[in-house]
Amino acid sequence: MTKKLKELKSIINEITDISSAAAVLGWDQETYMPKGGIGDRANQMATLSKISHQKFTSDKVGDLIAESKNEIKGLESDSDDNRLIKVLDRDYQKSVKVPTELVEEMSKANSLGQQAWAEAREKSDFSLFESRLKEIVELRRKYAMIFKPYDHIYDPLLDDFEPGLKTADVKETFEKLRPKQIELIKRISEKTEIDNSFLLLKYDEQKQWNFGTDVITKFGYDWNRGRQDKSTHPFTTNFGRNDVRITTRIEPEYLPTGLFGSMHEAGHAMYEQGVAPNLARTPLGSGASLAIHESQSRMWENLVGRSLPFWECFYPALQKTFSKQLGDVKLSDFYKGINKVKPSLVRVEADEATYNMHIMLRLEIEIGLMEGSIEVKDLPEIWNTKMQEYLGVTPENDAEGVLQDIHWSMGAIGYFATYTLGNLISAQLWECINKDITNLSDQIRKGDFSALLAWLRKNIHQHGAKFEPQELIKRITGSKITPEPYIKYLNKKYSDIYCL
Hints:
CATH topology of the largest domain: Neurolysin, domain 3
Distance between the termini: 60 Å
Number of domains: 2
Structural class: mainly alpha
CATH class of the largest domain: Mainly Alpha
Strand content: under 5%
Number of helices: 21
Shape: globular
């Protein structure tokens, strides 16, 4: 390793450690921190964000990046060092434009916003969150405008979560997807409604927890390098590849929430646990993007966890655990029940056929907030109107409506499109996986996920953030992100379930 590159890596390691320390505080805030600690925590998070930003945007780091470029000219384009400098240069050129004061201000607003959102959601009262969200939106607009000229004000925000992707790209993809999903939902709505009332009974919370942890253990989640806790909104966070933590939420009268929540977050976590050790403590030592991340979580939750082969293996144990509720429920009925299609109010509990409609709704609102065509004070009414327009349902209160997601309170505006993109990527990858592992369904039927996890480790996980999302997917599947495989997957699955 050259002298300049070694010096640069040393600084980057320190910056990564600061970010990891901030992540620990963020995890604690969502799990165990007393409510009264929010003011102190907001200051702590803001200070760490300030220090990290100042260290990264220093002239010294800029000089070292430029000098390292010259030192690594002879390396292969895909080498770790070459890719690291490429990512650092991209991130530096973007970060150096952002004033440290704004970074500190956004961090503090996000911490206070999360606390206000939690209280507002608990009391189902948007007014308790409105002023905090207005501040967050104004700060995000201020941040985005730093990067003028741009094609769209939303582009810089999307780029934070999905490097290289433009708002126009997402809109084009969604325009191809939307009519196909609407057509499928309409065909299903004409069929007899599936009975899933057995999922809405009283289920012991500890037994739910235990069953979920058993499932994700078999998936390959490494408990020696992770743990699971409860939070208002499930999430995954990592403080390094050897400390990747997840949370879930247990609903005592709706079985799927906790179980599929654990599967989903384990998918995220196993991705982080699988990043190559030599990428640790650098910007390459995490997932390539939020869409790639979502492809992993949605794959384990849906393509595996909601599949018939999976339940042919696990249903007898679940039925035994909850014999009172499921003793007389046949496997075929249970499988149909967990895959029932019905427009619903809550995104995280939406079926696969309607889920993307929730995302499209949120994307429209986010773009409107950034363009200025939507004001924060009008969000509850706009949300309810769009829910009726997109899904034919109207929330009865703010908690099940505009307050159901935590993301805006965290300043994560630009994030939601990655959920749908993750769905599309998961199906693209699934086609390749099944070509390479020809007996995958039989392996899942036996509760053996080792070959699947090994494939993901080799093709996705180990690379961390070395490749931009479109590049990574093209390397694996031969094409960029496209909706066709996902549409094909949905039509096949629901044609079988609903006899379409």
